[in-house]
């Protein structure tokens, strides 16, 4: 059995030992509670960001903190919209505040590097702002030893993988909500939490080039998904997961100049 990489399973003394090394890395998964159509659970974004964080942490000898399980409001053109039941969101200022508090707390405890692993499209700029304000609060300036990385996992999907996962053409990350990427990843990682017999097939949503507030609810397909998940498979999920974890690890190792043998030392 693997030693757990999750902070929730770690005792404070072992955690302090990791901090005392001066080289600790903590990943914070960030997701949402959001409708993902009839075939995927509301926690999909949180589940997937947590699984990516876990995969990366195992290879880096890093730790995974409790996820931020609620996200910024779902938007019609990227998540179907915040008007749909099941979607339960934070105001931007609230999310910024949560991130600011957590980043400050982890860095104050002596975590060397934090990695925010985003899994919900709408979160990104609010995470950026929360990190920026925390660093300002702490007086951490360019060139400091401590740092925070922010990323969304789908930005690590390679062109090669895209071509294999979407043989008929890639619809774009914004309308991937509840589509082939998330469904395939869930089929690979959490098959018991996917109901393929409930999948709603249909054409991709056609949305205007502007946002209108309040939203026009009819513009969101009845399924709540913006593109069809037909063609999803566990094999595609496995390909996606392995390639993305590999690229995440490679980028983080290079960026933070980590020793290759670090996983063996710290785990
Ligand atoms: Zn999602
Ligand atoms: Mn989302």
Briefly summarize what is shown:
With 267 residues, the chain is an alpha/beta fold.
Descriptive terms for the model:
267 residues; alpha/beta; Rossmann fold; four-stranded parallel sheet; 9 helices; binds zinc ion; binds manganese (II) ion
Rg over CA atoms: 19 Å
Query: Roughly what fraction of the amino acids lie in strands?
Result: 5-15%
The residue fraction in helices comes out at 40-55%
The assigned structural class equals alpha/beta
* Poorly predicted residue ranges: none
Which fold does the CATH topology refer to?
A: Rossmann fold
Work out the number of β strands: 4
Mean of the pLDDT scores? Answer: 95
Give a list of the ligands. zinc ion, manganese (II) ion
Task: Please describe what this structure looks like.
- The structure is a single chain.
- The chain has one domain (7-256): Creatininase (Rossmann fold), CATH 3.40.50.
- Helices cover 40% and strands 7% of the residues.
- The protein has helices at 12-20, 44-60, 76-79, 92-108, 124-138, 159-165, 180-189, 234-256, 262-266; strands at residues 25-30, 63-64, 113-118, 147-152.
- Strands 2-1-3-4 form a 4-stranded parallel β-sheet, with helices on both faces.
- Helix 7 packs across helix 8 (234-256).
- The radius of gyration is 19 Å and the shape is globular.
- The mean pLDDT is 95.
- Zinc ion (ZN) binds at residues 36, 44-45, 177, 182.
Q: How do the helices and strands line up, and which of them pair or pack?
A:
Layout (H helix, E strand, L loop, with lengths): L11 H9 L4 E6 L13 H17 L2 E2 L11 H4 L12 H17 L4 E6 L5 H15 L8 E6 L6 H7 L14 H10 L44 H23 L5 H5 L1
Parallel strand pairs: 1-2, 1-3, 3-4
Helix pairs in contact: 2-7, 2-8, 4-5, 7-8
Bound molecules: zinc ion and manganese (II) ion.
């Amino acid at each position: 059995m693997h030693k757990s990489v999750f902070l929730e399973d770690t005792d404070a003394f072992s955690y302090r030992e990791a901090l005392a090394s001066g080289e600790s890395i903590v990943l914070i998964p960030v997701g949402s509670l959001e409708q993902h159509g009839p075939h995927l659970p509301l926690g999909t974004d949180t589940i997937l960001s947590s699984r990516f964080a876990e995969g990366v942490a195992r290879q880096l000898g890093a730790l995974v903190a409790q996820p931020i399980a609620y996200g910024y409001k779902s938007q019609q053109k990227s998540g179907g919209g915040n008007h749909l039941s099941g979607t339960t969101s934070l105001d931007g200022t609230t999310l910024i505040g949560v991130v600011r508090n957590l980043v400050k707390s982890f860095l104050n405890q002596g975590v060397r590097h934090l990695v925010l692993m985003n899994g919900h499209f709408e979160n990104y700029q609010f995470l950026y702002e929360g990190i920026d304000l925390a660093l300002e609060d702490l007086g951490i300036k360019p060139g400091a030893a401590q740092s925070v990385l922010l990323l969304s996992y789908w930005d690590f999907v390679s062109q090669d993988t895209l071509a294999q996962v979407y043989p008929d053409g890639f619809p774009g990350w914004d309308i991937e909500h509840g589509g082939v990427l998330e469904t395939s990843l869930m089929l690979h990682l959490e098959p018991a939490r996917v109901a393929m017999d409930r999948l709603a097939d249909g054409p991709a949503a056609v949305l205007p080039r502007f946002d209108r507030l309040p939203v026009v609810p009819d513009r969101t397909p009845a399924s709540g998904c913006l593109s069809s998940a037909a063609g999803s498979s566990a094999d595609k999920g496995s390909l996606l997961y392995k390639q993305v974890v590999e690229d995440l690890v490679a980028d983080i190792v290079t960026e933070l100049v980590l020793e290759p043998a670090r996983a063996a030392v710290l785990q």
